[in-house]
Amino acid sequence: MTLLVLNGPNLNLLGTREPDTYGSTSLDAIEARLDDAFPDVDFSFDQSNSEGTLIDRLHTAHDAGVDGVVFNPGGYTHTSVALRDAVAGIDPPVVEVH
Questions:
Q1: pLDDT (mean) for 63-81
Q2: pLDDT digits over 55-64, tens only?
Q3: Residue 26 forms beta bridges with which residues?
Q4: What is the β-pairing status of strands 94-96 and 68-72?
Q5: Cβ neighbours around 28 below 10 Å, total
C-alpha cells in the first residue's frame, strides 16, 4: 500500500511553534512514528507552505496511482476552494486530519 502524507502551511514548525498549543513533537518525528507503526505501508511525506504546490502534489499523487492521501491542509482548511477542488478531482481517497 502506498500513502501520501501531505502537510500544509506552518506544519514544518511543529515542535517549535507554540509548543504549549501544538506540542513539542516535530513533523520529522511524526513521520518516523508512522514509518515505525506501519512498516508494510510505503509512505511518501511532503509539506509545503504554498497552496499551488499542495495542489500540484495532490495531482502528482493521482497520476502516480497512490492508494490514498492523508492531508492536513493547515490554515487552508476553511479558506481554499482550489484545494477542495483538487481533492474532489483526484481518484485516491483523501482523509483530512488536523
A1: 96
A2: 999 999 999 9
A3: none
A4: parallel
A5: 12
Q: What is the tens place of the pLDDT at every residue in 3-44?
A: 999 999 999 999 999 999 999 999 999 999 999 999 999 999
* Alpha-carbon dihedral sign for residues 22, 68, 76, 54: positive
For residues 76 and 51, is the Cβ–Cβ distance under 8 A?
A: yes
DSSP 17: S
Q: Among all residues, which ones are annotated catalytic?
A: 22, 98
Distance (Å) of CA 49 to CA 7, 9, 23:
9, 4, 20
> Residue 90 has which C-alpha cell?
483526484
User: Residue 54: what pLDDT?
Assistant: 98
Q: How far is the C-alpha of 18 from the C-alpha of 89, rounded, in Å? A: 34
* Residues contacting residue 60 through CB under 8 Å, at least 6 positions apart: none
Any idea what DSSP says for residue 70? E
- What is the model's pTM? 0.95
Count of beta carbons in the 10 Å neighbourhood of residue 17: 12
